[in-house]
Amino acid sequence: MTDQANRSPTLALNEPADSEVLTIGEIFWRDHQVWLQEQGYTLRPRYRPGWVPSWQGTDKDCWDVEDGQGLSRAVIIDARRLRDGADVCLKKIKTKIFPFEHGLSTLLGSGPLSEDPQNHSVPILESLQVPDDESLVIIVMPLLREYCQPRFDTFGEAVDFFSQIFEGVKFLHDRNIAHRDLNATNIMMDGSKMFPDGYHPQYPKMNRDFYSGRARFYTRTQRPPKYHIIDFGLSRQYDTRDPPPLEIPIVGGDKTVPEFRFTKRGKPPKPCDPFPTDIYYLGNLILREFVEGIPFVNYSNRLKGFEFMRDLAQDMTAKNPSDRPTIDEVIERFAAIRKSLNFWKLRSRVVKMRGFPDPRRPFRHWYLRIGYILRCIPAIPSYQRACQ
């Protein structure tokens, strides 16, 4: 094994760190695997002491086998809870760098607030203090997946998504909490009901064992999911919003926020109220992911039929923060939009603006929709109704 002390301190995060092909970010998890198992969580074979890559000595490549699937982010790893076999996610929090993240995450994700149905913050199942580093805490969360994978099947499913996320942000703002980084990667979905047999944590389209094919799943209409807001590393809670709090802008995933831009003379942006910025984040997510697409990225894959959200999203992304609606006004306006959508619109299939459509899909789609109608399955899913 390569002597870690002789390695360059500028080694890239995803560069192999030793002969076992683990990255530097993965080494931490391997070195703490025994301790984590003592706490009740087991990692995949790749991160267990003594692991030998299964593809060595074979004609297979690392990406062909399960233990060749590394981490997409070094601070987060999937695990399995030993007492019940549940799939969970572990995240490292460096408390010296993000001093508020652990406190806000546990405030929202555990205890009395976590039981509120309007709370869409990610649940925190447990917190673990790393024994050899007092500034490092590991939080345990349910295993979640991208909010848009699999794709939305109907407009009713997308309407449910908008409703849940607006509700979740209102829950935060009502408690004077600004998230400050509401981009598409920080909104995720609990897919446990949609994927009854599970899925691979690094390649969610595949089965849990990775090699036996694609994961079987239900539509959101059949098994409504709950959407969650994650990553409170930049979030803050304030004693009051009168007067509005002023924060020096911290650029997160969405770098298009108008108030974060330097002035024409090159001066840094002034402190600003983070709550209208949250509204911008949400509006821009709707524009980029549903209405207009992202130029030069997924512009050609933008979706048809979401023009009903355009006016609201454009107002939410107004250049002047004072011109943006509050989250209460967003919810009020969205309620009117939701009410205006007729039965056929809500049941209709979501399709991409470009591409080569399969002429058989509309027939398959309406065959299933008619079955839902006959079984009185609502056009707009509701995870709360499904839990009753």
3D architecture notes:
The protein has 388 residues and is an alpha+beta fold. The protein folds into 2 domains: 120 residues, Phosphorylase Kinase, domain 1; 243 residues, Transferase(Phosphotransferase), domain 1 (Orthogonal Bundle), CATH 1.10.510. 27% of the residues lie in helices and 11% in strands. A 5-stranded antiparallel beta sheet has the order 1-2-3-5-4. A 3-stranded antiparallel beta sheet has the order 6-8-9. The relative contact order is 0.10. The N terminus is likely disordered. This is Kinase-like domain-containing protein. InterPro entries: Kinase-like_dom_sf (IPR011009), Prot_kinase_dom (IPR000719). It comes from Mycena belliarum. One of its GO terms (molecular function) is protein serine/threonine kinase activity. Keywords: Kinase, Transferase.
Tally the helices. Answer: 10
- Per the CATH scheme, the topology name of the largest domain is Transferase(Phosphotransferase), domain 1
What order do the SSEs take from the amino end to the carboxyl end, as H and E? HHEEEHEEEHEEEEHHHHHH
Strand content: 5-15%
CATH A-level architecture of the largest domain: Orthogonal Bundle
Roughly how many Å apart are the termini? 55 Å
The structural class is alpha+beta
Q: Note the overall shape.
A: globular
How would a textbook summarize the main sheet?
5 strands, antiparallel
What is the percent of helical residues? 25-40%
Look at the structure and give the mean pLDDT.
89
Which spans of ≥5 residues are poorly predicted at pLDDT below 50? 1-19
Number of DSSP strand runs:
10
How many structural domains? 2
- What Rg is obtained from the alpha carbons, in whole angstroms? 23 Å
CATH class categorisation of the largest domain: Mainly Alpha
Task: For the largest sheet, list the strands in their spatial order.
Answer: 1-2-3-5-4
CATH superfamily of the largest domain: Transferase(Phosphotransferase) domain 1
GO cellular component, one term: nucleus
Protein name: Kinase-like domain-containing protein
Organism: Mycena belliarum
Keywords: Kinase, Transferase
